[in-house]
Design brief:
- With 333 residues, the protein is of the alpha/beta class.
- The protein has a domain at 11-212: TIM Barrel (Alpha-Beta Barrel).
- It is built from eleven helices and seven strands.
- It has a seven-stranded mixed sheet, covered by helices on one side.
- Helix 1 runs parallel beside helix 2 and helix 3 packs across helix 4 (134-148).
Amino acid sequence: MNPLTVPPLMSGGLMLSYQCSSTCRHCLYRCSPKRENIWMDLEDVKRVFAALKRERLLHGIHLAGGEAALRFDYLLDVIRLAREMNIPLDYLETNASWCSDPDRSREKFRQLREAGLPAVLISCSLFHAEYIPYERTRIGIEAAQDVFGPGGVLVWQPWVMDILERLPNPQTTATWEEICAAAGWTTDAPQIPQSYGITPGGRAPQALRACYPLEPPEAFRHQICRRILESTAHFHIDPFGNLFTGLCPGIAPGRVGNLHPRITPEAFPAYWSLAEAGPFGLMQYARDAYGFEPDAAGYAGPCDLCQQVRAHLLDTAPEVHPELRPAEFYKDE
């Protein structure tokens, strides 16, 4: 069998921390205030930027978390470092939880722009509204547009603003029931994950489980993950230097010291199984070699099955599966 490798990186994000102001139900990377307060130090950021400069197809990266603006002065230093090293920055991704005052928000956006940030992506989300008053999202969008101009601000997703305007009190956080009622949905409505195109991985398979029709592992028998795993159009590098491709957190054969490792079934068996046989094949491998028993209730999707199998492999044979990292991703919060 020919070994696999991670293709050249094209576009992605630098996750400065898993620390976040929210514990959103849909978070693919399971960020939270409860995660360890670990941030990539500036020397490591420099090493990441140096490694990315060697990527011949790279055309841009964004800065993310968690919530990168939780350490604002540090964030400014990262942006300045990117400018010094000629790293093509696309935008900062933020949930605007820090935008409580229009004037202070504009001033902070000015500082970000002057440091070298070209644009901002502000998440406008039903899931954020449980933790962030919608008023802060609105202030953040308006303040960012004042500083960067409308073309320098991407709102993800703008249609949610109409829903959040209907909340009983936009100045405070809302309950999940209030948020769903404002949208005209029940709390188990399939439209909730469908409307966002949510990957049923990370926190979503459990936090939004009632929204999904559960299926047996056999339903995913013919879904192979090689094309997904080889996608580098939206990669992420986490604060530990792990490289996630294809929107697949928690599995990283590549690291900053070696972004393109030689991937064989002996070196990275979980990744290899997914690439060659998909989540169902990974389940068969885990069942035969490590006693995995599938959940009789079924799974919210192939990513749900994959994540549960990987958690079992990390628990039973971590030394055999070094690609399953960071271990914190698989722990209950």
